[in-house]
Amino acid sequence: MTKQADSTRPTDNEARALARRLIAEARFGALGVLAPQSGAPMVTRIAVGTDEAGAPVTLVSSLSGHTAAMKAHSACSLLLGEPGPKGDPLTHPRLTVQCEAAFVSRGAPEHSAMREHWLKQHPKAKLYVDFMDFGFVRLTPVSAFLNGGFGQAFRLTPADLGL
Q1: Domain boundaries, the chain
Q2: What confidence tens digit (pLDDT) does each residue in 97-119 have?
Q3: Angle at Cα 95 formed by Cα 63 and Cα 90, nearest 5°?
């Protein structure tokens, strides 16, 4: 079995800026988790925002399967970046962030600031943000992989993301 060559480029300031922009502008993304019953991968679309420091966060219901999965196993993956209206979807930038999910309790000091910041990014969430089954999850980056388009692959660290 031969080892595949690493096709990533050295991370530069342009790649860092693009990755940070993808996080800052994301309002939804694909979350990958491991199903607690089977250990099988599961992917779902979630609402995404940032906390005041720029780290990705989401608002989830305790009734959802992906919430149970993150509680059982905090390692998860977040895919951000959507294809533009024209061209090959695979030429548009996207960022995969490997994360650790950290639930923020309603009594935590940062909860009210996170709620306020979330509602600025997702005003329609005012309808359900205070439902008892909803809570915030900070998705703390561990590593990231940026595909900036054809031939533009980069590995990034939390520091590269400004976190």
Answers
A1: 13-150
A2: 999 999 999 989 899 999 999 99
A3: 110
